[in-house]
């Protein structure tokens, strides 16, 4: 047993020197990054912010009808990786992405590919509920309007109500669709954002800490919603709450200092993680 | 190895949490179980002394001290309940808590076995039929050997819990054949057609006592299984022991 | 010492130490608050003084002295041929009518010098007033009517009390003789102060009683309208590009620094620039709202760009992410979401820039806006002047009556400035509440 103490101290020592130099080789990922039925396939993704490498050789599949959760300490690159999946990183100056990320076999970083339609296919829900300061109806209808998904008002009405129903918000707001979306409670706002995202019928929904600003009840409602949405969408969720990752996801990926340390069935990750770093993190031993 | 572990009774496997109070809670839980284990060993030794050497006072003392182990077991349960509710342990912590819960049960039942031996000792000598030590030196040796094996296994398993030490746990498994051997010998001796000096009723008492000793050894094995479960993350109950020991040894070597 | 205290028998509790210093701290706080209050009161006092001075000097300009005379619209003077030809009516000698009317009121005045003094009591603009009456209603010809005629500025000053009647004649602008006539007219009820419509309807004039701010107001209006037209779209566009689209590199940094520097450039430099570039190279007609607007646009652009960028920055990035996240293009994101939210801030900045432009004088002097222009400008390229320049010109005039007109014009300018700033505040408050 005493040998483990040595191992640990050696490991932490190596870690801090690596942090200082920032020139560490990427770590091999423990566990199987592939799935039988992938929707998105990422291979050897590196992300650089200027000279700083934020993601080091990450490979990960996102399967159809599954929820993949990404966990890890702050600054581990999980959000960065998530934002690569719909090219939200394009808006950041000096951000460079290499490697391949494919959506249904199409490389999304292909020179000729337009990120605008991509973001309709890969929707995103953000940490802070961010409804537009417009009416509830307009919030949901906006995406459909700009993409021209509907031909007339009746179709748009139908789409708005269907999206709100899918997001489990319809019964709460059906009588006040013309009221501002910003007037809803935090949890309702987040569900409105989910409705807005699914209104453009994406294939993948990315969620960046969707519940971090919500109370436990609202969180539970969103988690239940995520589980329902799994039937029709692939979902990748970044969360700081390990319990949430354990509750909502089928697969879990643990990121650490830009490396994807371990991927596996959520059940396995939370009962018997293979990598020591994963275990330290999920059991609360991470400094 | 043993020295190493006694030097660091709280191995790092359950420690090192960012929330140090969590470490303390797990350490307290483990302390209760180690305390129980220590008491069970004393109880067993006292009970065997009573059985073999006819020391009735020892037997009564065993009976008197039994409730303390029961209370410790209740404390352990309470602590486990609290840790699960407040800390929501995952991964290794979850295994530790689950394993300690099962270990607490095994230790408590091993304690019951000591009581059973003490009771057999009293029953053996009921009505002043056979005061003092057992008349047969061979039987005494056999029972002492069985007791040695059982207590050694149990002590080792408790030490394994102290550091969740796989080596010690494997040692417990390796002791099993000797325990079974000693147990068989004792049974064979008591099962002789022409065993002189014992009434059938006394033979039953002695058999029961020997069986209880063997069961204590079995509990030690169960505890060792839980230690392996914590350290290796594998549930190895109901597996072939020899293959298991071999694979575990190989894994550790590599 | 600390150790000694720590080891000493009575351990001092934090609360005791805090209580001991509390009084001193509160006293300090009170002093600071009083100082702040004092500064504010002092500031308000000066503002009040300024306003009191301006209003005190200027409010009388909103009234004008009129003298009532029985004017006989003599057909032989106005329309000897009786053809009622408008051209004839326009050219008739109405001054003669006034002189005649004065003779009727003051029959004893006959000496040539005295009649001239008598005539100078009435403004030279009075005859055109009579002309307008006749042109509007030719039936007046041949009748006699009591008409209120505009008094000369000296009489006006006298009636308003700006000329001290107790001074010896030699030190007074109005001679004793005229003073006597005025007092007689006053006793007969033939002198009256009325609301000064001329001030708001006429252009400037050499005669104070005929000078108005209408020309300058219209000039300012045309100038500001054009300035807004030029600077708002360019300013907002520049801000939007710099803030949202431009790559962040050395060039954009340079541009940013320069914009901030431009905001600090003395305004007269813009006037020189306008003179050299717009007039010298492009040949824009000088002294027009067009050239003024071009120069003022240059001047207000930095203000608008800086305010607009601040407004854009204050729009939470989550809104941009939300729009991009549902697949809006960058331009759609800006136009549909960011710009509407930033608009109140941009408008506030623009209005403040406009207010600055409205009050600006120095650069306009460089581009000929100082010319004496009587006509009210009718378009963007007609010669004109603007309010602050008009004030500057009047303040320079020697006549006593221009003093009150200057103050009155300042009051009008201040009223517009306050109105604009108020609009900015209201806009901001109105939209802030919504967000």
UniProtKB/TrEMBL annotation, chain A:
GO terms for molecular function: ATP binding; ATP hydrolysis activity; phosphate transmembrane transporter activity. Its EC number is 3.6.3.27. PANTHER family: ABC TRANSPORTER I FAMILY MEMBER 17. Gene3D superfamilies: P-loop containing nucleotide triphosphate hydrolases. SMART domains: AAA (SM00382). This is Phosphate ABC transporter, ATPase subunit. It holds the Pfam family ABC_tran. NCBIfam families: 3a0107s01c2. Residues 40-282 form the ABC transporter domain. Residues 1-29 are annotated as: Disordered. One of its GO terms (cellular component) is membrane. Keywords: ATP-binding, Hydrolase, Nucleotide-binding, Phosphate transport, Transport.
UniProtKB/TrEMBL annotation, chain B:
The keyword Transport applies. InterPro entries: PhoU, PhoU-like_sf, PhoU_dom. Residues 33-119, 144-227 form the PhoU domain. GO terms for biological process: intracellular phosphate ion homeostasis; negative regulation of phosphate metabolic process; phosphate ion transport. It holds the Pfam family PhoU. Gene3D superfamilies: Phosphate transport system protein phou homolog 2, domain 2. Keywords: Phosphate transport, Transport. This is Phosphate uptake regulator, PhoU. Signal peptide: none annotated. It comes from Thiocapsa marina 5811. Belongs to the PhoU family. The keyword Transport applies. NCBIfam families: phoU_full (TIGR02135).
From TrEMBL, chain C:
It is a multi-pass membrane protein. The lineage of its organism: Bacteria, Pseudomonadati, Pseudomonadota, Gammaproteobacteria, Chromatiales. It comes from Thiocapsa marina 5811. One of its GO terms (molecular function) is phosphate transmembrane transporter activity. NCBIfam families: 3a0107s02c (TIGR00974). This is Phosphate transport system permease protein PstA. It holds the Pfam family BPD_transp_1. It is found in: Cell inner membrane; Cell membrane. CDD domains: TM_PBP2. One of its GO terms (biological process) is phosphate ion transmembrane transport. Residues 217-424 form the ABC transmembrane type-1 domain. Belongs to the binding-protein-dependent transport system permease family. CysTW subfamily. The chain crosses the membrane at residues 32-52, 221-242, 262-284, 290-312, 407-427. Keywords: Cell membrane, Membrane, Transmembrane, Transmembrane helix, Transport. Its main location: membrane. Coiled coil: none annotated. The keyword Transport applies. GO terms for cellular component: plasma membrane.
């Amino acid at each position: 047993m005493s040998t483990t103490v040595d191992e640990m101290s050696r490991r932490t020592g190596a870690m801090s020197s690596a942090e200082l130099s920032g020139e560490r080789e990427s770590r091999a990922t423990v566990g199987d990054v592939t799935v039988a039925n992938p929707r998105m396939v990422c291979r050897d993704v590196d992300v650089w912010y200027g000279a700083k490498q934020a993601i080091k050789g990450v490979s990960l599949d996102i399967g159809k009808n599954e929820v993949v959760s990404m966990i890890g300490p702050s600054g581990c690159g999980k959000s960065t990786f998530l934002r690569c999946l719909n090219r939200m990183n394009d808006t950041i100056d000096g951000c460079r992405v290499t490697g391949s990320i494919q959506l249904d076999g199409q490389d999304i970083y292909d020179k000729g590919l337009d990120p605008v339609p991509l973001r309709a296919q890969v929707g995103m829900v953000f940490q802070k509920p961010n409804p537009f300061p417009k009416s509830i109806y307009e919030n949901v209808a906006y995406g459909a309007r700009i993409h021209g998904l509907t031909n007339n008002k009746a179709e748009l009405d139908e789409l708005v109500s269907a999206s709100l129903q899918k997001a489990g918000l319809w019964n709460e707001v059906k009588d006040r669709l013309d009221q501002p979306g910003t007037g809803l409670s935090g949890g309702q706002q987040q569900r409105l954002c989910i409705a807005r995202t699914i209104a453009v019928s994406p294939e993948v929904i990315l969620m960046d800490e969707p519940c971090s600003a919500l109370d436990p009840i609202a969180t539970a409602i969103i988690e239940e919603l995520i589980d329902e949405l799994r039937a029709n969408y692939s979902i990748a969720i970044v969360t700081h709450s390990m319990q949430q990752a354990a509750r909502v996801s089928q697969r879990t990926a643990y990121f650490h200092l830009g490396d994807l340390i371990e991927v596996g069935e959520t059940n396995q990750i939370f009962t018997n993680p293979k990598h020591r770093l994963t275990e330290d993190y999920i059991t609360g031993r991470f400094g | 190895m043993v020295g190493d572990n006694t030097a660091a009774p709280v191995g790092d496997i359950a420690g090192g949490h960012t929330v140090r109070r969590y470490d303390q809670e797990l350490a307290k839980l483990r302390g209760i179980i180690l305390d129980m284990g220590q008491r069970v060993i004393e109880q067993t030794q006292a009970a065997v002394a009573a059985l073999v050497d006819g020391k009735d006072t020892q037997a009564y003392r065993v009976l008197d001290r039994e409730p303390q182990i029961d209370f410790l077991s209740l404390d352990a349960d309470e602590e486990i309940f609290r840790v699960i509710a407040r800390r929501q342990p995952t991964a290794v912590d979850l295994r530790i808590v689950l394993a300690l819960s099962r270990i607490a049960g095994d230790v408590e039942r091993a304690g019951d076995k000591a009581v059973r031996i003490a009771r057999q000792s009293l029953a053996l000598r009921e009505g002043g039929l056979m005061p003092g030590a057992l008349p047969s030196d061979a039987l005494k040796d056999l029972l002492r050997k069985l007791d040695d094996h059982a207590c050694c296994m149990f002590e080792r398993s408790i030490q394994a819990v102290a550091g969740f030490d796989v080596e010690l746990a494997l040692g417990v498994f390796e002791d099993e054949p000797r325990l079974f051997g000693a147990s068989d010998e004792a049974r064979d001796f008591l099962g002789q057609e022409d065993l002189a000096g014992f009434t059938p009723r006394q033979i039953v008492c002695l058999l029961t006592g020997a069986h209880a000793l063997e069961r204590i050894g079995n509990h030690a094995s169960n505890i060792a299984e839980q230690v392996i479960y914590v350290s290796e993350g594998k549930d190895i109950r109901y597996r072939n022991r020899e293959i298991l020991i071999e694979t575990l040894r190989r894994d550790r070597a590599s | 010492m600390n150790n000694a205290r720590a080891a000493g028998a009575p351990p001092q509790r934090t609360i005791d130490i805090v209580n001991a210093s509390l009084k001193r701290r509160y006293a300090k706080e009170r002093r600071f608050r009083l100082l702040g209050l004092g500064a504010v009161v002092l500031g308000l006092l000066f503002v009040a003084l300024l306003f009191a001075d301006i209003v005190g000097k200027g409010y009388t300009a909103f009234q004008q002295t009129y003298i009532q005379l029985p004017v006989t619209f003599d057909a032989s003077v106005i329309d000897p041929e009786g053809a009622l030809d408008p051209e004839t009516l326009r050219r008739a000698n109405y001054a003669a009518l006034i002189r005649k009317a004065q003779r009727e009121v003051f029959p004893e005045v006959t000496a040539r010098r005295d009649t001239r003094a008598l005539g100078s009591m009435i403004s030279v603009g009075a005859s055109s007033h009579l002309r307008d009456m006749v042109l509007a209603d030719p039936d007046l010809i041949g009748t006699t009517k009591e008409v209120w005629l505009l008094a000369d500025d000296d009489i006006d000053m006298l009636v308003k009390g700006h000329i001290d009647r107790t001074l010896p004649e030699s030190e007074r602008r109005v001679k004793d003789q005229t003073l006597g006539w005025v007092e007689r007219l006053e006793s007969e009820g033939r002198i009256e102060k009325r609301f000064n419509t001329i001030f708001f309807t006429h252009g400037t004039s050499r005669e104070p009683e005929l000078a108005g701010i209408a020309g300058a107001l219209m000039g300012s209006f045309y100038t500001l309208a054009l300035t807004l037209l030029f600077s708002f779209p360019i300013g907002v566009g520049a801000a939007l590009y710099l803030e949202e689209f431009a790559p962040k590199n050395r060039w954009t940094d340079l541009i940013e620094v320069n914009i901030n520097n431009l905001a600090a450039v003395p305004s007269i430099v813009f006037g020189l620039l306008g003179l050299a570039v717009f007039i010298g190279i492009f040949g824009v007609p000088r002294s027009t709202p067009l050239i003024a607007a071009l120069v003022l646009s240059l001047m207000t652009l930095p203000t608008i760009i800086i305010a607009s960028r601040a407004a854009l920055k204050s729009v939470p990035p989550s809104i941009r992410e939300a729009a991009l996240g549902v697949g809006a293009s960058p331009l759609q994101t800006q136009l549909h979401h960011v710009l509407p939210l930033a608009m109140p801030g941009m408008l506030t900045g623009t209005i403040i820039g406009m207010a600055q432009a409205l009050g600006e004088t120095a650069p306009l002097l460089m581009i000929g806006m100082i010319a004496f222009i009587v006509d009210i400008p009718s378009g963007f390229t007609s010669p004109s002047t603007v309010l602050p320049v008009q004030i500057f010109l009047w303040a320079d005039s020697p006549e006593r009556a221009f003093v009150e007109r200057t103050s009155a014009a300042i009051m009008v300018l201040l009223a517009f400035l306050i109105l604009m700033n108020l609009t900015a505040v209201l806009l901001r408050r109105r939209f802030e509440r919504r967000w």
